[in-house]
Amino acid sequence: MASDDEILKAANRFFSKVGSAVRQAGDAAKRAGQQVTGVGRGSVQVAIERTRHAPGDDIRGKVTLALTEPVEAKRLIVTLRATQRTVDYGRSGPVRTVGTTKATVYEQTQELGGARSYHDETLAFTLPIPRDAGDRKPPAPAGRLGDVARAVSSVVAPTTGPIEWRVTASLVIPWGRDLEHTVDLVVD
């Protein structure tokens, strides 16, 4: 018959194995949660040298990856995007409708890195602003109704807002939430 010490040692070994299995399952669940939600993976920060630029200038900046552990990603990109608010007029039967949308008037993407494992690092980038940046216009509405609405509304009220320029850095993660950061800038 086993003594009390032997029974306690056997129970200790058993619960030690159960505890390590539960710990491993918890770590696996944490990694899966980070993969899907992106929470706890770290962050991507984009910083530009200046926030005011003229058409034809180059935007210089850095992307800083602050990751808690190495992340397998498809690519790291920086995007310069210009959007403009437009007023859309429509007709649904006898009812006229007015709505607003954001139209992209310019977009340029630069890839800073391809598919690999990303760690804590800082990468520099340069994005050119087009010389005709102030003359960009959103695409015109389609059809005759759009032409008529644009002609009438240009006399009555403006249909577009100012062009908004943004630089966005994105770490594209397969089967997970991408890490992104956006900075606004002024082009005048």
Description:
The model has no long low-confidence stretch (mean pLDDT 80). The protein is elongated. Helices cover 26% and strands 49% of the residues. The termini are far apart. Strand 5 (75-92) and strand 6 (95-113) form a beta hairpin. The chain has two helices and ten strands, in the order αββββββββαββ. The chain folds into two domains: 1-37; 41-187, Immunoglobulin-like (Sandwich). The longest helix is centred in the N-terminal third of the chain and has 34 residues, at 4-37. The strands form three sheets. A five-stranded mixed sheet has the order 2-10-9-5-6, covered by helices on one side. With 188 residues, it is α+β, with helices and mostly antiparallel strands. The chain has helices at residues 4-37, 143-156; strands at 42-48, 52-53, 58-67, 71-73, 75-92, 95-113, 116-118, 121-128, 160-172, 179-187.
Task: Write a brief structural summary.
The chain contains two helices and ten strands.
